[in-house]
Amino acid sequence: MNAPWSVAVDMGGTFVDAVALHGDGRIAALKYPRAGRRLAEPVVEALDQLCAQAGIVSGDIDRVVHGSTVITNLLLELNEPPVALVLTRGMRDVPVLARQDRKELYEPVIMPAVPETKLFPESLRFEIGGRIDAEGREVEPLELSAVDAIADAVSAAGVRALAIGLLFSHRNPVHERALRAALHARLPGLYVSLSSEVDPQVREFERWLTTALDAYAKPLAADYLHALAAALRMRGLPMLHLMRSAGGTAPWRDLAEQPIGLAMSGPCAALQGVAACLGACRSGAAISLDVGGTSADISLLLDGRPTFAEALECGGLPIRQRCADITSIGFGGGSVVSVLPGGALRLGPRSQGAWPGPAAFGLGGDLPTLNDALCVLDRLPSRLAGGIVLDRAAAEIALSDVAGALGLSVPRMAEAVVSAAAAGMAEALKTHAFQRNLDPADAVLVAIGGGGAQHAAEVAELAGMRRVLVMPHAGVMAALGMLCSPDEGDVRVVANESPWDSLPPQGEGPHSLFAPMTTVWVPAGWSWRLTPDRMLTLEAQA
Amino acid sequence: MMPRARDIARDPAIALCMEPLRLALQGTADRMQDGMMRAAVSSIARESGDCAAALFLPDGRLLAQARSLPLLLGSLIPAVAGVLARFPLAAMSEGDAYLLNDPWSGGTHLPDLALVHPVFHDGEVIALAAANLHHQDVGGMAAGSIPPDANEVYQEGLRLPPVRWRSAEGVLPDIDAILAANSRTPDNLRGDLQAQWTALTQGARELRQIARHTGSRFAEVCDALIAQTECMTRAALAAAPDGEWTWHDQLDGDGVDTAPVRIAVRLSKQGDALVIDFDGTAPQVRGPLNASPAAMLSAALFFMRTLAPDAPNNAGCLVPLTLKLPPGSLVNPALPAAVNARTATVKLACNAILGAWSQSASGTGVAPHAGVATVLALSGTRMDGRRWMFTEIIASGAGAGVHAPGRAGVSTDVGNARNTPVEVIEAEAPLRVECYEIRRGSGGAGMQCGGDGVRRIYRLLEGEGSIAYRGERHVGRARGARGGGAGATSVARILRVDGAVEILPARARIAWSTGDRLIIETAGGGGWGCPAPIASANPLARSCP
């Protein structure tokens, strides 16, 4: 007989979430503070603690799945050492010239499209002769005599990773493979990514940049995943699987080989979790709203299935990889409120994130944030999941300066901030839906993440939507989703203990509902009720 | 003093609605643009995004515009004014839409058709939704309606003063028949007009929902947003010292003659107001490089938007501006001037404004960009007789700012075209792209160097071909700011298979055959600040590589 438990660990920015799912549908879950560490230890500790709490021993565990923001954060921060590139002769500037358009139309000085010096400075971009044509035929042999000089320069620069991008390698990879073999013969420890393997599709800039970013992530991903896998092996646990951005899981070695496939690991898992928990509400269109500390993610599910896209953007860089189709905007609980000259209120893009966090968290942050506005409006409980006790006075002080600049009282200012947050999320949601030929009025809104249910009804109202579902495990949806990938068969999660037990079963807004790991705001004109499948439903009154 | 919100919205209930409404209007305008591009038939709109959408108040003031092509966005303002002058609000009915392209009624060049639709809510016009789109063909002496050798507008296509295109019953059959009869590609014309209509109905529907949410104060909040932009723009102007600054530049020719054509501008800033005066600019020219006032407004709007880029993107930024375009000049030509190639003029005029402003010690300036969007159309016949053709736009260098060098090879000012990937070119045409690289050293020298242009080399692999090249800055250069050096000129040449070299002028049509190479090097942007000698002890000063 198989061991009964599956375990998933999701590493986010603030917490490590761990969930164990029993074959009979039982769930155990916990949030473990990450405390600033980014590599394997907090993951292993969270796992140990969950097992201790739930009385699970290693022999009871059939499967361990992990999702991680490590690669996402690495791509946002770009603090790793640069990589070397070897590109077709004449093309070494292609990754820098990008597609020649610019993002900010009206900024007087035009910023670079790609942070060249951080990723692949000119001195590390090499060229090599040889051509494959558009039909995939060799029209000029690969200039292997150039390899020695490149290997010498790469080794002298102390570079650990290198990306190879040759024209039309997606039609015929023979030159890229021969080049890798020649480089490995000289430098066996070098991490090498081939554009014909990472993203075998036409259009060289996108393919080469994606490949370069894969190489950029490789040394750290390999160190991290080897350490984690070794720690699990020591505990006698089954082989580690990882959640992919494109849905489903894969053995960890596959993703150590191609870490770019982890770029949206967590958000994709959360969507799988929603799909598994939708239950009777599967048919038709649903839009998920996942609000965390730094961002809000919006995505579409059709008939209970997540939707996918062929590209994503991370830190402003286009990455061409199949991935859960998610629009992410910089609106989260830690988004900073500011007032521009002229009295224009703005929320974000700056975020206090989890550290130093909103003023109300008392962790040292003193800038006004979205969470401070919610706190002032009594929309947050005095004590949050994870044990943070809110300091309302600190939130009021933080908001008083910006309120003064707008000539508003602090509570009015807080209202303005929360309405701006709802408007920003609603606009992103409408754009996401209309671009996919869906009128949001025809969809139900699903709230997940720590803050999704806080804003969902107001967002729905602005987007012309009438119904919001709050998921019972909204706070650990990503970890749960890792155990619900399509390769697990058709997993349906049945909540054994309802997190809503302490709430009145129905009522009318305006009202705040505080449940473990989820806080819900029911605005005026909306009502709530608990459904038999343990979903919390919010509805706009006629 | 920093202006405060309470000076704009004394009523807290209005202050509360402003940011949500700004976000909603911006989102709506962007979705109009998305809808139009998705529905468009011809690739110039669908792929290259040569179209623009915006929302206006009933009095014609710009309320929000999509984040799309500045070249077209600014021109929608005069187009809406042109429609309102001919069709007063009282004459409009629900379901109407009005069309125009006449450069003397608010249009730019004839292929750009502007469509305007009144948005009714509770029986009243609360806004106008507008969109323009570069259509593939509206008649005239050459396919595509942009004849390089035109010398009057009558050769350029069908000219439409403001006319009613549609009523609640549908498209008016008479106007539809005229349009179809005057286009070489009537199906494309009809399809792309429908794409514009899609954008307008999407905008109208969303705007009604927004107005319902905002309630009776909708108009007041709109006014407050425009006042806020005006306030933020005036604050940026007031922060700069008063003064008068001039700049001049030149086009390499007018498209027919090769004598340089002068563009001159004077900026006068007093307090929080600005005058931009193009007095001293050459008289209108024989060739098609004349720019109508609607086209020139795009250049002025672009500059005014850069003063407070964080402000809501509405008409408020134009309130502090007086724009003077001398009648009968290159930038305000009299009928029947040819106008189809106005883009080059608008781009250099825009950079002349940037150049003048860079002298102002405002601290916010940028040296002129090279401002050249080279248009290259290559075509030919393969050995087996199959025809091929493609067109691409090649960018040049950006100007440097006080804190940062100029970016290499990037679309600047009123344009934002993408490049064509080498793998797309080689799959479509018998060409080998041997090089696409930064043309190092072509940006102007300076404390901060101007952005470099790019170099592209094409080799024709089989058969015969023809090259249609439309460049700029083969003679004139993008001058640097505050002592910075000028960018290099553009150079285009053919290296024949027998070793002979032929230099191309700024506008050329020329044949080439198997084995010949075409080498295009685009111009560099202007540098910022005096380049110090290489031995300087100041680590910030360097000459450009």
Describe the protein's architecture and organization.
- The complex is a heterodimer of chains A (542) and B (545).
- By secondary structure, chain A is α/β, with parallel strands linked by helices.
- In chain A, helix 11 crosses helix 13 (410-435).
- In chain B, the strands form 4 sheets. A 7-stranded antiparallel β-sheet of chain B has the order 2-1-5-4-3-6-7, sandwiched between helices. Chain B has a 5-stranded antiparallel β-sheet with strand order 14-15-20-17-18, with helices on one face.
- In chain B, helix 9 links the parallel strand 10 and strand 11.
- The longest helix of chain B has 29 residues, at 186-214.
- Chain B starts with a helix and ends in a 24-residue tail after the last strand.
- Residues 534-542 of chain B have low confidence and may be disordered.
- The chains are: A alpha/beta (542), B alpha+beta (545).
- At the A-B interface, helix 3, strand 22 and helix 13 of A face helix 1, helix 2, helix 7, helix 8 and helix 9 of B.
Layout of helices and strands:
The complex is a heterodimer of chains A (542) and B (545).
Chain A (H helix, E strand, L loop, with lengths): L4 E7 L3 E8 L4 E7 L6 H15 L6 E8 L1 H8 L6 E5 L5 H4 L18 H4 L5 E4 L2 E2 L5 E3 L6 H10 L4 E5 L8 H13 L4 E4 H4 L5 H31 L5 E4 L5 E3 H6 L7 H13 L7 E7 L4 E7 L2 E2 L1 E2 L2 E3 L2 E3 L3 E2 L1 E4 L5 E6 L3 E8 L18 H7 L15 H15 L3 H26 L7 E6 H15 L3 E4 L6 H6 L23 E3 L2 E5 L2 E5 L3 E5 L5 E5 L2
Parallel strand pairs in A: 1-4, 4-11, 5-6, 5-9, 9-10, 13-23, 23-24
Antiparallel strand pairs in A: 1-2, 2-3, 7-8, 11-12, 13-14, 14-15, 14-20, 16-19, 17-18, 21-22, 24-29, 25-28, 26-27, 28-29
Helix pairs in contact in A: 1-8, 5-6, 11-12, 11-13, 12-13, 13-14
Chain B lengths: L4 H4 L3 H28 L3 H4 L4 E6 L5 E4 L4 H4 L2 H11 L10 E4 L11 E10 L2 E11 L28 E5 L2 E2 L1 H9 L4 H29 L3 H21 L4 E9 L9 E10 L2 E5 L15 H15 L13 E4 L17 H17 L15 E8 L5 E8 L27 H7 L2 E8 L15 E7 L3 E7 L20 E5 L5 E3 L3 E7 L3 E5 L24
Parallel strand pairs in B: 10-11
Antiparallel strand pairs in B: 1-2, 1-5, 3-4, 3-6, 4-5, 6-7, 8-9, 9-10, 12-13, 12-16, 14-15, 15-20, 16-19, 17-18, 17-20
Helix pairs in contact in B: 2-7, 2-8, 6-7, 9-10
